[in-house]
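seq as requested:
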Amino acid sequence: MWGKLRLMRVFGIDCGTETTGFGVVESDAAAREPRLVLKAKGAIRLAKSKTTPQRLKQVFEELSAEMERWKPEVVAIEEVFYSVNPKSALKLGQVRGVALLAAARQELPVAEYAPLRIKQSVVGYGLAQKEQVQFMVARLLGLAELPEPFDVADALAVAICHIHTAQTLMAQGAGR
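struct tokens:
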């Protein structure tokens, strides 16, 4: 199944109002043992002292620069989830919108995944805890240390989920 999967570079994003994580994962199907390869990871930390427009500008500029640097084929992002706090959901939606704009400005396709699907793909259990996701991301990428903060691990998990999904579609013949 892996042998049919072509090289793919995915830019994963985990949007947050304080920290937005990103990660670049590549599938290496040409290797003797097909594997996932970490190319980049990082966290955009937003200062509470800045205004909302300044914070959104920072997210846009930093994500745009990283997308330009790593030239992914696709951007994978977590779908909007419903929050108990409408104000928090609105703020998160603004950050997410800026992330989508950064991808659109570079004419990159965007794949969106529900949190349950991401966890199911990476951990095998849709209600997994953040620590479990972090641990499995490290295992799948062959990392010596856990990716931190959780936002970075979550961004890498979104990218891995997209690669797993593409792999499954290819195996089913739908990815042609």
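Strands lie at 8-14, 19-28, 35-45, 74-78, 110-113.
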